[in-house]
Amino acid sequence: DDICDYFGVKIAMYFAWLGFYTSAMVYPAVFGSILYTFTDSDQTSQDISCVVFAIFNVLWATLFLEEWKRRGAEFAYKWGTLDTPAESLEEPRPQFRGVKRISPVTSAEEFFYPPWKRLLFQGLVSVPVCLACLTLIFLLMLGCFQLQELVLSIPELPRILRFLPKIILAVIVTACDELYKKVALWLNDMGAL
């Protein structure tokens, strides 16, 4: 509470999480120490204790996250930030275009983009572009595999040339990654207008 009063809610929430996390780490540390102490030196016993510890960690992580959700909500309520959703604090995207209307929920003026237009864009542009990108990368990958088979079938080629198809595939993947990022951003911007 003193941190919240002095530094604000964001910093206080961070330190509350940090304290909660630190105290919650006691459970895996104690369980792991006990398990390590009673594990024999043979490989089978070590494998079994490793699996048991992994299962314990999965359960612990799940319980930890659920407990933090509850504890974080308590702090948010206590510090007066529970009723303020994060999206209401942010300004709408400046690129968003739509028709101004009165919201049927809040009765405030807002921009509205009809869902049928978004679905039309998704069906006629987004899906075909994504399918074309998938087909392109699939065909390029198959071509690299065929080139690999060809290179391996020629025994008199120098060893360094045997890596050529793998290098080409790596270059193609890198180039397509950059291209697909631009396509994804364009589709996202156009689909949300």
Please, could you describe this protein's structure?
The protein has helices spanning 2-7, 9-24, 26-38, 43-78, 86-89, 115-153, 164-191; strands spanning 99-102, 109-112. The chain is mainly α and 193 residues long. The chain folds into 2 domains: 1-79, no CATH class; 99-191, no CATH class. The chain has a two-stranded antiparallel sheet with strand order 1-2. A hairpin with a 6-residue loop joins strand 1 (99-102) and strand 2 (109-112). Helix 2 (9-24) runs antiparallel to helix 4, helix 3 (26-38) packs antiparallel against helix 4 and helix 6 (115-153) runs antiparallel to helix 7 (164-191). The model has no long low-confidence stretch (mean pLDDT 84).
Tally of separate domains: 2
Can you count the beta strands? 2
Radius of gyration: 28 Å
How would you sum up the major sheet? 2 strands, antiparallel
Shape designation: flat
Helix-strand makeup class? mainly alpha
Instruction: State the end-to-end distance.
Output: 43 Å
Query: How much helix, percentage-wise, in residues?
Result: over 70%
Residues in β-strands, percent: under 5%
Order of helices and strands: HHHHHEEHH
- Unreliable spans: none
Mean pLDDT score? 84
